[in-house]
Amino acid sequence: MTNAAPRILLIEDDPNIRRFLRLAMEDEGWQVFEADSARRGLIEAASRQPDALVLDLGLPDADGKTVITELRTWSGAPVLVLSARDREEEKVAALDAGADDYLTKPFGVPELLARMRVLLRRRQQMVAGEAAQGSRVHFGQVKVDLATHEVLRAGEVVHLTPIEFRLLTALIAGQGRVLTHRQLLLQVWGPEHLDRAHYLRVHMANLRQKIEADPARPEHLITELQVGYRLVGLMH
């Protein structure tokens, strides 16, 4: 993403919702493209190369999760999901598919814009980090060298087990977005351990003991209740 106006793709089949969201986002100075179906949305995503997407799950030709799954095979652009489905299972499924955030209808436009600004900042930081090709990141008093596996907290070496380091690396790669229990189990332990969420709880607790100033009140390794975890405050 450059200093040019952010390019947003809005995939929503309701023309009234599309219209007021487009106007609100254009008022932010963003360039907005529209699609009213899953098929059209994927075509627009490929041709427009947006910096972020707003995606309704209830599309006429396919479930929005299939759009996310397809998109994630070739694009890392952040996706904010809109849905009238408010069940926790739907939220988890969308995040598992690769969405970055989830907003339930009805919603307030100021909240949507605020969440989009967060996603755009995160995307900009990620692109800048990739461009710099740096292997070092930090959050709070913690510094991590992804190349050498060295972890420091307040200048002191922190000794992480291989699993703890893989878990921390997965959260760093998430760039601040929520990673579901399933995503973390898959990345850290592999597909044969997807039913062992207790592994995740135990190792997350150990990781917090080693890198949080107050493990009982974590500032960086944040729990998203019944969904997963996110890393807050990451800097390149």
UniProtKB/TrEMBL annotation:
Swiss-Prot/TrEMBL GO biological process terms: positive regulation of DNA-templated transcription
Modified residues (4-aspartylphosphate): D56
Occurrences of domain Response regulatory (ranges): 7-120
Keywords: Cytoplasm, DNA-binding, Phosphoprotein, Transcription, Transcription regulation, Two-component regulatory system
InterPro entries: CheY-like_superfamily (IPR011006), OmpR/PhoB-type_DNA-bd (IPR001867), Sig_transdc_resp-reg_C-effctor (IPR016032), Sig_transdc_resp-reg_receiver (IPR001789), WalR-like (IPR039420), WH-like_DNA-bd_sf (IPR036388)
One term of GO molecular function: identical protein binding
Coiled coil region boundaries: none
Residues annotated to bind DNA: 134-233
Chain ranges of the OmpR/PhoB-type domain: 134-233
GO cellular component: cytosol; protein-DNA complex
Top-level taxon of the source organism: Bacteria
Main location: cytoplasm
Subcellular location: Cytoplasm
Pfam family, one: Response_reg
Protein name, UniProt field: Response regulator
Biological source species: Diaphorobacter ruginosibacter
Organism classification: Bacteria, Pseudomonadati, Pseudomonadota, Betaproteobacteria, Burkholderiales
